Amino acid sequence: MIIAPSLLAADFSRFGAETQRATRSKADWLHLDIMDGHFVPNISFGPEVVRRLRPMTRMDFDVHLMCSRPEILLEPFARAGADLITIHVELGPQVEPLIWKIRSLGKKVGLAVNPPTSIGLALPFLDRIDLLLVMTVNPGFGGQPFISEMIPKIQQAHAWRQERRLGYRIEVDGGVNFDTARECSKAGADTFVAGTALFGKKQMKAAVARMRRLVQEAHPARG
Ligand code: DX5
Ligand code: ZN
User: Fold this and answer.
1) pLDDT per residue over 104-150, tens digit each?
2) pLDDT tens across 102-116, in order?
3) Could you give the CA distance from residue 63 to residue 54 in angstroms, rounded to a whole number?
């Protein structure tokens, strides 16, 4: 399993120290939410922040692009140190060339599906991605409640992965806390993004360990 704290819930005046805190917490990946004020009604941070954080940790950088024109951002984020770049399936005809472009930059490919979007739209791409991100809130802001109607999507993603013998990770993002992480794990998720539930805690290391234990207990094979 992968636990990925989301920097969106960190103290924005101390990104460096917050990245070190995430590293010390023994989390696996750092989740970086990139918002352009157009695809979602909020703005976060850009490639320069990612570039400056890159030498501070060995954690993989999981870059989640919530952007209308990711084609102009793929190279900058690849150069800045992204390990995996996720784009949204809602971009329609752009998805295919974007996947190809991310791959050609030597990065892992993620595909995200928003709550109102059918998971079926991801179907044609499943054999070409490393990660399927099932959004469990409408993207744009941290601290929103988990939408439990998304559980069947996780189950579907898991069923497809088994039926087709594919290896993509199933990531959940939004309102993931100790309770909802357990539900997601039972449904088939193996990669857990959490902002508020991890960065929001003084004892982040204990929070990461607890989430890991609960996920594992909910589904022993998830380890
Ligand atoms: C939502 C972002 C999430 C966000 C999750 O737009 O994609 O990654 O940081 O935050 P929490 O865990 O607080 O819901
Ligand atoms: Zn995210």
Assistant:
1) 999 999 999 999 999 999 999 999 999 999 999 999 999 999 999 99
2) 999 999 999 999 999
3) 12
Of the listed 11, 33, 127, 179, which one is catalytic? 33
H/E element, 205: helix 204-218
Spatial separation of the C-alpha atoms in residues 208 and 3, rounded to whole Å: 7
Which stretch of DSSP H or E encloses residue 85?
strand 84-88
This prediction has a pTM of 0.98
Instruction: Give the angle 8-109-163 at the CA atoms, nearest 5°.
Output: 115
Residues making up the chain, counted from first to last? 223
143 lines ligand 1 (CB under 6 A): yes
Decide: 70 in ligand 1 pocket, CB within 6 A. Answer: no
d(CA 99, CA 105): 10
State how far the Cα of 180 lies from the Cα of 34, in Å rounded to an integer. 24
Pocket-testing residue among 2, 61, 141, ligand 1, by greatest number of atoms within 8 A of Cβ: 141
pLDDT beneath 70, residues of the chain: 223
Domains of the chain: 2-218 (3.20.20.70)
